[in-house]
Amino acid sequence: MKKLKIGITCYPTVGGSGVVATELGKMLAEKGHEIHFISSSLPFRLNKMYHNIYYHQVEVSQYSVFQYPPYDIALSSKMAEVIKREELDLLHVHYAIPHAVCAILAKQMSGRDVKIVTTLHGTDITVLGYDSSLTDSIRFGIEKSDAVTAVSESLRMQTYDVIQADKPIEVLYNFIDERIYHKVDSTHLREEYGIKQDEKVVIHVSNFRSVKRVPDVVKAFHHLAEKVPAKLLLVGDGPEMRNVTKLVDDLQMKNKVLFLGKQENLEELYSISDLMLLLSEKESFGLVALEAMACGVPCIGTNIGGIPEVIIDGKTGFICELGNIREIGEKAITLLSDSELQRQFSFHSIERVKENFRAELIVNQYEQIYERLLKEG
Ligand code: GMT
Questions:
Q1: What residue stretches are annotated with the Glycosyltransferase subfamily 4-like N-terminal domain (predicted)?
Q2: pLDDT (tens digit, 9 = 90+) per residue, 229-279?
Q3: Do residues 123 and 74 share a domain?
Q4: Do 15 and 144 belong together in one domain?
């Protein structure tokens, strides 16, 4: 395929969407494309030098005449500048608003026929889509993009349902870089964290927003810890942290729960874990479940959004009803008390990721979309 010049815009510090956008940029660069990140700060996973990855910072000035800093306009101007100067072939933006709308404006400002690909990650639809003051803008961003992708079938259907967009939406699942996410030898961490030989390790990773239902994770763990010796690793930070620490205190579980805060090198933590809990009330995909599965960790997830498209009930983990703490706790006990079941689920998790969510497979699908659009002219 012809080597392309691709502009990528995402919220660089926001969880999964920023991770996927950055990983995609890195993979495309490895395949020889020239990548231009256009964002407000350096994407946090861009932690290595690539000769063909460029970063263009969006500077948002605060003027006293404006009540709010004009991020969207500053971004559109920067996009237009980069489209013209670097002669970009296409812009791949993550989130319909504001990024697709900014890309459409930038295309008009630049006067060049740059193609626009928009990837929907969920928050733009499952949260913002229900704000009627934004629905028309989201629909506009989707319909005026040249191609639109969603990270799960569930998100695709929800977008049609909520936004009523008249546009084909293709499902391209999230992926992981299997060179990073695989089981590694990090057993020393068990000892360093004070995890005893006979204890199982349960992990939860999120940005602790209320939609992640971290209190449910603590309650389900409390249920299982009555039967199975275990420690809970809580990784991440966010608005719910205060409630969660209080709940842990109230349940007298301080000695069983480790608050690790935000962490890099998650594969090392997954590699000492026996089970992941992802009990969200909204989740268009659940990238952390995929990362854990790639390291051989079975997951229990809620029957919400795209989670059942990632976790296969009874094969790579269990799917439970949202908020059903007893059911979740019991399923966790079943799994953690049966080492053969755990081994099978772990094996099937790794296989599932390799077959369906490996980077090469999904990055090729994105490239095919780019190629198609540029051929269409
Ligand atoms: O989950 C979050 O709070 C972050 C959010 C985001 O916009 O980055 O994640 C969304 O995109 C991820 C990557 O596609 C998905 O794995 C997450 O499921 C999705 N989050 C929600 O739908 C709540």
A1: 14-177
A2: 999 999 999 999 999 999 999 999 999 999 999 999 999 999 999 999 999
A3: yes
A4: yes
- Asked if 284 and 306 count as a contact pair (C-beta separation under 8 A), the reply is yes
| Pair (262, 240) in one structural domain | yes
Q: Within 6 Å (CB) of ligand 1, which residues are found?
A: 14-17, 20, 121-123, 126, 151, 174, 207, 209, 211, 282-287
Write out the two tokens for 335.
Answer: 């799994």
CA of 284 to the centre of ligand 1 (A): 6
- Closest C-alpha to 181, from 279, 289, 262: 289
Q: What is the ipTM for the molecules in this complex? A: 0.98
Phi, psi of 272 (to 5 degrees): -105, 10
By residue range, what is the domain housing residue 259?
188-356
Distance of CA 190 from the midpoint of ligand 1 (Å): 29
CATH number of the domain enclosing 48: 3.40.50.2000
Q: Read off the tokens for 79.
A: 């996009």
Give the chain's domain count. Answer: 2
Q: Do 206 and 14 touch, CB atoms closer than 8 A? A: no
Residue 328 CA: distances (Å) to CA of 125, 176, 231: 28, 26, 16
Ligand 1 centroid to Cα of residue 159, in Å, is 15
At residue 372, the 3 state secondary structure works out as helix
